[in-house]
């Protein structure tokens, strides 16, 4: 959807919302005593659900298995954003059409995770568990602002999640301590926050945008850069397939393994399980001491 298209949807949605109110219709988030939260990608949905528990209803605009990059909200999605009690979003370019909606009709209670995504244009802050822990506190604060009588429960939910995330961080730090300085070669350059946290050196084949076609010249440059690093594995995203990772693995005699950026998350998959699987893959695939 173009920016003009997004603004058109906003106009139509505004009329629709007003029409529902005038006719006495129920809004999308009809009052059932729970706080209505809209998240715009899976990691944000996970945090909102863990912090809010049974006190919240969380809708994720990125459907299960869908790609959060460049999400184009349908009119009903725009209506949900406008009507939500709390919106949890990551602004700054991951989802420009959603950014437009939020700018035009800024939610009264908005948690914007943008300050946590401070690596240039890289949005994948959630691959650093301690950054996710920071977000949990912000979500708890905004939920309490809407639903003050349950502020203690939201604080407790955030504390439980933060404790589990600190435990996850400790597992990563212990397991990857012998790997400090190792090269993390990934087809999608989504792992910068993880690499920064645990002392790894990321080299990305396709850059930050997984949809950009890799040129032969770029592939040669990456191969030359990797050749003397001791890298043993090229990591790829299962949803995207082997693609250029297979070419690079063949040329440099590397193994290939899956590393999940936790963007296209299917039904039944969870953040803790995917992060644990990623740690197992890193332990198998990195060149570590000992």
From TrEMBL:
Pfam families membership: ZnuA
**Which GO BP terms apply?**
metal ion transport
A molecular function (GO) held by this record is: metal ion binding
- What PANTHER family does the entry give? HIGH-AFFINITY ZINC UPTAKE SYSTEM PROTEIN ZNUA, HIGH-AFFINITY ZINC UPTAKE SYSTEM PROTEIN ZNUA-RELATED
Q: Which residues form a coiled coil?
A: none
What UniProt keywords apply to this chain's record, in alphabetical order?
Signal, Transport
Give the superkingdom in one word.
Bacteria
Protein known as: Zinc transport system substrate-binding protein
Q: Which family does it belong to?
A: Belongs to the bacterial solute-binding protein 9 family.
Which SUPFAM superfamilies does the UniProt entry name for this protein?
A: Helical backbone' metal receptor (SSF53807)
Q: Which organism is it from?
A: Blastococcus saxobsidens
């Amino acid at each position: 959807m173009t920016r003009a298209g997004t603004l058109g949807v906003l106009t139509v949605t505004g009329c629709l919302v007003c029409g529902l109110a005038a006719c006495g219709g129920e809004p999308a988030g009809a009052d059932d005593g729970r706080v209505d939260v809209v998240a715009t990608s899976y990691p944000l949905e996970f945090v909102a659900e863990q912090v809010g528990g049974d006190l919240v209803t969380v809708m994720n605009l990125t459907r299960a298995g869908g790609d959060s990059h460049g999400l184009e909200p349908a009119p009903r999605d725009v209506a949900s954003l406008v009507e939500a009690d709390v919106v949890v979003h990551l602004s700054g370019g991951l989802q420009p059409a959603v950014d437009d909606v939020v700018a035009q009709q800024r939610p009264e209670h908005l948690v914007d995770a943008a300050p946590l995504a401070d690596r240039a244009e890289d949005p994948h802050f959630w691959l650093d568990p301690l950054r996710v822990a920071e977000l949990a506190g912000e979500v708890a604060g905004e939920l309490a602002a809407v639903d003050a009588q349950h502020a203690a429960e939201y604080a407790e939910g955030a504390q439980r999640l933060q404790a589990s995330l600190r435990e996850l961080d400790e597992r990563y730090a212990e397991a990857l301590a012998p790997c400090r300085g190792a090269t993390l070669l990934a087809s999608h350059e989504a792992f910068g926050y993880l690499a920064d946290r645990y002392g790894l050196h990321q080299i990305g084949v396709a850059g930050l945008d997984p949809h950009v076609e890799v040129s032969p010249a770029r592939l040669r440059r990456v191969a030359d850069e990797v050749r003397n690093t001791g890298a043993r594995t090229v990591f790829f995203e299962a949803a995207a397939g082997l693609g250029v990772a297979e070419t690079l693995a063949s040329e440099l005699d590397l193994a290939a393994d899956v590393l999940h950026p936790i963007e296209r998350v299917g039904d039944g998959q969870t953040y803790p399980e995917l992060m644990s699987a990623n740690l197992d893959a890193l332990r198998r695939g990195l060149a570590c001491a000992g």
